[in-house]
Specification:
Layout (H helix, E strand, L loop, with lengths): L2 E4 L3 E4 L3 E6 L7 H5 L3 E7 L8 H10 L9 E6 L5 H20 L12 H22 L6
Antiparallel strand pairs: 1-2, 3-4, 4-5
Amino acid sequence: MSQIEILGNIVIPEGEFIFKASRSSGPGGQNVNKLNTRISLFFNIKECDSFSDYQKKRILKCLSTRIDKEGCIRVVSQKFRTQNANRQAAIERLQELLEKALKPKPIRKKTKVPYSAKQKRLDEKKRRGKLKQQRSEKNFEN
């Protein structure tokens, strides 16, 4: 049995995955009507021992739209014509999703608007104001 590695330090044994095969949709000739090549991968995050409680909460929050009430994530692959290729694609997709959810977000550094930028903005406002004022001045001299 193989395993997948996430962010280099988290290892999930493939035994924690549940695979279900079904018929693919879309074009594909007679092959699509006979063979179960579409793979659905189910992975229960809440029952996985490879993640800490903090990591589980983070995954459940980031991937909340893809996870059901029991904490099970479903990834489907039907891109390829063989079960093995779709199985590998589903595992890779799950790996990408988990890595994206666990990747720490960079801390935003607050920046200050430079003095010159403020001055530039105020100068432009004054210039536009003068221009509009000149347009509205009416000379009624004959």
